[in-house]
Amino acid sequence: MRDYLTASSLGDIPHGFSSSAGLGADQILPGAALVRVRQVHSATVVTACDAWEEPPEADAIVTDRPALALGIVTADCAPVLLADPEARVIGVAHAGWRGASAGVLGNTVAAMETLGANRGAIRAAIGPTIAQASYEVDAAFRDHFTHADARFFTPGRAGHWQFDLPAYAAQRLREAGVTRIDDVRQDTYTQPERFHSYRRAGHRGEETAGRQLSIIALGR
Asked: Which Gene3D superfamilies does this one have (predicted)?
């Protein structure tokens, strides 16, 4: 039984969003080399031409090379997979609130364009992430955003708001020219039997090291 999620927007592009059960590159594309980065909550994107020995610091990867499986890990942040099936260009991005607000998704789309993608043809999928009902933030967090972002916050208890990270990520994709976007709509926080959640683990005083792996690849 397959224990990972897929998105209809990506069609037959090999891809998957893992649960806490894990995921291997061979499950997505047999024989593919898994390419990852050292994630630092940045807006930096790197282009993979081959599997590297020492992963660079970045939060998104793009490629047009077959048999490479691009992967990022998350545990509440939004994993975003992107593909232009006609140009055969793919990308993956780690979109926490810092990276998303700094432009990691727009930068990923731009990097895909340099490989021949057409941003109007790019499809995107947002994987399991913390949902608005589970994401309480304070005034200091709210101050990182502009008045135009007010629609992504709903009032909560005094001095707090609920932040809609997947909707914010989708808006940043639309601003970059991506119009076909799927959201698998799975809340990492409320499903301890299925997903790791950094925030839930912190609230419970548990180990916070668990992560989901999201992968996209180009077939040969």
From this structure: CNF1/YfiH-like putative cysteine hydrolases
pTM of the shown model: 0.97
Residue 26 has pLDDT above 60, yes or no: yes
Instruction: Tell me the torsion sign for CA atoms 102, 181, 108, 62.
Output: positive
Q: How confident is the model at residue 9 (pLDDT cuts 50, 70, 90)?
A: very high
CATH number of the domain residue 203 falls in = 3.60.140.10
Closest CA to 18 of 188, 213, 191: 213
What is the rounded CA–CA span in Å between residue 179 and residue 214? 21
Which of 115, 118, 19 is CA-nearest to residue 73?
19
SS3 sequence of 100-144: HHHCHHHHHHHHHHHCCCCHHHCEEEECCECCHHHCEEEHHHHCC
Q: Decide: helix, strand or coil at residue 67.
A: coil
The structural domain count of the chain equals: 1
User: Using CA of residue 109, residue 112, residue 116, residue 120, what is the dihedral sign?
Assistant: negative
Q: Please write down the long-range contacts of 20-24, taking CB distance under 8 Å and 24 or more positions apart.
A: 20/194, 20/195, 20/196, 20/210, 20/212, 22/213, 23/212, 23/213, 23/214, 23/215
- For residue range 61-115, list pLDDT tens digits in order: 999 999 899 999 999 999 999 999 999 999 999 999 999 999 999 999 999 999 9
Burial label for 27, CB within 10 Å (0-12, 13-18, 19+), is middle
Domain residue limits at 190? 4-217
